[in-house]
Amino acid sequence: MVSLGKSKKDFLCKFMKYYWDDIIGHKKSITQLENDILNKNLAHAYLFAGPAEVGKYAIAKKFANILICPNDYCRSCDDCQQFQDNLHRDVVTVNKLWIDKINDNLEQIARSSNFNQIHRAKKKTKTDIISIDDIRSFSQKLYEKKQSKYKICLIKNIERLQPVGANALLKILEEPPQGTVFILTSSYPEKVLKTILSRVRKIAFSNVADQVILQQLQKQTDAENLSEIISIAQGRPPIAVKLLKDYSLFEKEKTRFHQIANILSKPELKTDFQFIEKLIEQPQDIENFLNALLRFLRTLLLEKSKNSQSGLSQKITYSNLVTMQEKTNNTKIMLKQNINKRLLLENLILDLKSLA
Asked: What is the CATH number of domain 252-355?
């Protein structure tokens, strides 16, 4: 979650009824959610759609906490505490999934996903796809007697659903258990089943303006590297906050940007493939690299739009940059389907070099 401290009065959205004190930006989306609560106009299903890493899931969790608290989001009652500990019996969270040899610590997984995933461990599941078995496992909890006003089902990155699982979820959305609110998030809504999209209320998210992020960070620090942090974060507040708090991570991200620039500007394929080989040895770094690549490409697109082109942004056409983003996004999605990682990454590098 994007957090900059505990003082309520120093944050954006302080004018709201509920405290959104740890959220940077997204005023329009938050206002819509507040209005839905205050006007008693809740939808039975929401889709928070927008770019990755902009804070959608943090807001989804806060929205769920507001709904589950009997004391107007007091953040101190048993319900709030159980929610924060991911132990509330009326809240189902589907976030991290058990993946063989990559994410196989059930105790750690339980901190973000509170449904039974033993079936995944027994099958030694190797993908991040939400299967029909996952749907069956977590949906059982939705039909148990509730102690709160609502049952909440939080699902992160709903595009991970395979067709069979998507159809199973669709049936639940068509006839949801009484008092259930689904809060789904997606960075790729175009990959979500259209019939699911037709049954949700969409809340749109976008990158947050650099100036908004900068203003919030300046209230907490006078660090000299703020401009570099903003440049690396590229409109993603959670990234900016992490970089501010962790200098080693900041240095690592700077190195990633340098590596990406070298990949796109230099012809040495041997060096690039050696880099991929090292990346595959640390599977958790693959997504971090691809996310950094998307942010890097966005910096080039912004330079194009502001006519402040130099280096790569001057060399690569606008349409090619857009195509490069699309290819990177498609690679992120295919990696979740257990397709050969080395082959995918090598093909991506070849495609990007040809476009650069």
From this structure: 1.20.272
